[in-house]
């Protein structure tokens, strides 16, 4: 990604204006205000894609240490700037990205998708549900939703469409390709919301909730998965049907799809030793993340989620499924560790320096004048939080910039901490549906040309409403059963 000087200048000017021009508000310390200046400048740089996000993060860490916004001591300042790199959450997501490389290298991801299509691919809607099921199967160990939806599922979807001569180049995308492309994309935000390890920003939400509640609310992998499973599954069931009704494919019966999938499975041959190991590691990690050993044998056999990820990676290295060269080449994992650490650090110090509390107090006072209870306030906050994503090209930037403040406001107005955490966590993934730049998967699928811009934004708006209604509606019932509020 080339350096973009105009966007860089905008980010710098925004930061300087906040730091030097705008007076520090009453109730805010200069250190907190200066951290806000660095933070907003960083977010603006990320949105403007001044440099790759990892490079921006390195600059942000440097500026935090150099300006001493956290401490007058230079040694303590650099310690503070690097403090988040010891966070297990950061390593959980980074290691999980490395492990997901095994799905691609061994071909197991493709085999799973072709397997579902070979069974359910007699009709177009069956192909759609097969792609959705494959997306769900691999979601727990693919924290790069772009790699999952764009790198594994999308090439398979394109191959199926091409086998029916449904391509943008031929002007026949409406035969089957447009519908499958829409399903391919809209499964991605839903599965991303179902597991902590299904997309990179989810662990950030976990960390922010933990800090905001003083450690009283800790969203474990199992807690998140159980809470999101029922509403997520309902959304996955409804989504292909809604898209089918609005943008029905011209070709509705696809017996050739089953043959296509079976031919590809035949070409792949019998399941390889490496695929079997990958499948075994996948199963082991799910058992440990679900805390099954502790449930069966006692709490002393519980294994931390990050430790589980390291166990999985270690097994893949020792068995030769992944080599150290493979891991070094997994640039997205190392990149995630770098930028994730910087953003968590800045968000943590905004909270520690009191700025989030000040912001939430002011928003609370504004909403308080409306006379709404916490239910009405949460509804307004959630809708604003979700639909403001039209102005963001990164879920990470969005969540980093706004989650802590919106969550703090809801808590101040009396929202149950666990309930509101789950609502905002769901909204943070549902918002991916909106635009062709909403998350990394979007441009991959949009640029393949099967869906026009008007169609993309139209179905995105519709699916955001459908997913929100189902997720929050079913979630409220399910979370009540689970005793979360």
Order of helices and strands: HHHHHHHHHHHHHHHHHHHHHHH
On the 0 to 100 scale, the average pLDDT is 89
Low-confidence stretches: none
Helix content: over 70%
Shape verdict: globular
H/I helix tally: 23
Fraction in beta strands: under 5%
- Gyration radius (Cα, Å) is 23 Å
Tell me about the largest β-sheet: none
Distance between the termini: 46 Å
Indicate the structural class. Answer: mainly alpha
Total number of strands: 0
Key traits:
485 residues; mainly alpha; 23 helices; globular; transmembrane; Anion permease; CitT-rel; SLC13A/DASS; membrane
List the helices and strands and how they pair.
Layout: H1 5-21, H2 30-47, H3 53-67, H4 74-81, H5 88-106, H6 108-120, H7 124-138, H8 145-163, H9 177-192, H10 201-212, H11 221-246, H12 255-268, H13 273-289, H14 292-297, H15 305-318, H16 324-329, H17 331-352, H18 355-368, H19 374-387, H20 395-412, H21 417-430, H22 441-446, H23 453-481
Membrane topology: Multi-pass membrane protein
Transmembrane segments: 6-24, 36-65, 85-104, 224-247, 277-298, 305-324, 336-359, 371-390, 396-414, 457-479
Subcellular location: Membrane
Give an overview of the whole structure.
By secondary structure, this protein is an all-alpha fold. 73% of the residues lie in helices and 0% in strands. It has helices at 5-21, 30-47, 53-67, 74-81, 88-106, 108-120, 124-138, 145-163, 177-192, 201-212, 221-246, 255-268, 273-289, 292-297, 305-318, 324-329, 331-352, 355-368, 374-387, 395-412, 417-430, 441-446, 453-481. Helix 13 (273-289) packs antiparallel against helix 15 (305-318). The longest helix is centred in the last third of the chain and has 29 residues, at 453-481. The radius of gyration is 23 Å and the shape is globular. Keywords: Membrane, Transmembrane, Transmembrane helix. It is a multi-pass membrane protein.
């Amino acid at each position: 990604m080339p350096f973009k000087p105009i966007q860089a200048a905008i980010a710098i000017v925004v930061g300087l204006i906040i730091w030097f021009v705008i007076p520090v508000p009453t109730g805010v310390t200069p250190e907190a205000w200066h951290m806000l200046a660095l933070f907003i400048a960083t977010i603006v740089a990320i949105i403007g894609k001044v440099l790759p996000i990892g490079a921006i993060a390195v600059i942000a860490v440097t500026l935090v240490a150099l300006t001493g916004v956290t401490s007058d001591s230079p040694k303590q300042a650099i310690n503070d700037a690097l403090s988040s790199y010891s966070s297990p959450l950061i390593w959980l997501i980074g290691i999980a990205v490395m492990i997901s490389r095994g799905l691609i290298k061994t071909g197991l991801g493709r085999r799973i998708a072709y397997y579902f299509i070979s069974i359910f691919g007699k009709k177009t809607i069956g192909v759609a549900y097969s792609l959705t099921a494959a997306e769900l199967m691999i979601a727990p160990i693919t924290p790069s939703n772009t790699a999952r939806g764009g790198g594994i599922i999308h090439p398979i979807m394109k191959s199926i469409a091409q086998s029916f001569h449904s391509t943008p180049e031929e002007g026949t995308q409406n035969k089957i390709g447009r519908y499958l492309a829409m399903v391919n994309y809209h499964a991605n935000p839903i599965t991303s919301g179902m597991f902590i390890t299904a997309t990179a920003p989810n662990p950030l939400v976990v960390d922010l909730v933990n800090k905001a509640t003083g450690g009283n609310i800790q969203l474990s992998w199992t807690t998140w998965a159980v809470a999101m499973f029922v509403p997520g599954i309902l959304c996955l069931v409804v989504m292909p049907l809604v898209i089918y009704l609005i943008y029905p494919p011209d070709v509705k019966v696809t017996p050739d799809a089953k043959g296509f999938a079976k031919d590809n499975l035949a070409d792949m041959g019998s399941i390889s030793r490496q695929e079997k190991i990958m499948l075994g590691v996948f199963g082991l990690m799910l058992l440990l993340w679900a805390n099954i050993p502790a449930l069966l044998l006692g709490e002393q056999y519980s294994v931390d989620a990050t430790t589980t990820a390291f166990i999985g990676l270690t097994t893949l290295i020792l068995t030769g499924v992944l080599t150290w060269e493979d891991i070094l080449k997994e640039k997205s994992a190392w990149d995630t560790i770098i930028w994730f650490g910087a953003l968590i650090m800045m968000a943590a110090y905004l909270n520690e320096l009191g700025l989030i509390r000040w912001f939430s107090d002011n928003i609370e006072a504004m909403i308080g004048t409306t006379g709404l209870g916490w239910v009405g306030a949460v509804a307004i906050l959630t809708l604003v939080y979700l639909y403001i994503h039209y102005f963001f090209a990164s879920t990470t930037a969005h969540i980093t910039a706004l989650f802590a403040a919106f969550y703090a406001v809801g808590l101040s107005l009396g929202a149950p901490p666990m309930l509101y955490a789950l609502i905002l966590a769901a909204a943070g993934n549902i918002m991916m549906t909106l635009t062709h730049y909403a998350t990394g998967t979007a441009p991959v699928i949009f640029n393949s040309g099967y869906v026009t811009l008007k169609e993309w934004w139209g179905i995105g708006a519709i699916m955001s409403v459908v997913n929100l209604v189902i997720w929050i509606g079913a979630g409220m019932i399910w979370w009540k059963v689970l005793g979360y509020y």
